[in-house]
Amino acid sequence: MNVMQIDRRRFLAGSAGLVAGIGMTRPVQAQSYGQAVAVDKDEGRPVANMRLPGEIVGEIPALRGVTYVGPREAEVTLYEFFDYNCPWCRKAAADMASLSASDTALRIGLINNPILSPHSAQAAKVALAVQRRLGSEATWRLYQGLLGRPGKVDGPAALAAAGKLGVPAAEIEGIGDSDEVRLALKSQMRMAADLGLVATPSYVLGNTGLLGHPGAKSLARMIAATRRCDRIAC
């Protein structure tokens, strides 16, 4: 067995241990939760949402490894907490791209919350390694590519996609296995747990948490309302 195979085994095993340490959950039907503000999804069903503790939300910008798209000085930032193997996150990724293109004043922050399987944690570690090595623009492309493809997203799939960005897979794997990436992923998952974001995807907009994906039009309405009155509906 060569060194690369040993490193790959350690990388995969470490991902499984990290997910187990935070706690793994199943996908949640967000409709079973209540509404702090009456807002609807694109198809007309209620969006589950809750007011979040401002002191915890205020810690989000300090998280390591968040992928940002949009102007740093943006008035509104929409944070998405997602899992690479969440089926609803595939639709969300397309809608995030649409929102980013149509609202150039919006800032989007992508935060890993790989609660569905160790495969998701493997992919998240690769994405955080790309973020650390190449920055947000490359990680945004990786996010779009991985969530735009069919099938399971795991470490090898993510490494193959990352390799197309011009960094050798061995280098990305080494960064992904570092303490810096492990701690960044742990802190991102802990933030989701502390905020009660039990569904994937979930969002933080202002001091409101949204469970599940409302759709691009619904999110756009809530973003516009947040700009007007600092609430997801005025």
Automatic annotation (TrEMBL):
Top-level division of the source organism's lineage: Bacteria
Location of the Thioredoxin domain: 41-190
TM region positions: none
SUPFAM superfamilies documented for this protein: Thioredoxin-like
InterPro entries named in the record: DSBA-like_thioredoxin_dom, TAT_signal, Thioredoxin-like_sf, Thioredoxin_domain
Pfam annotation, one family: DSBA
PROSITE patterns, sorted: TAT, THIOREDOXIN_2
Entry protein name: Thioredoxin domain-containing protein
Biological source species: Methylobacterium iners
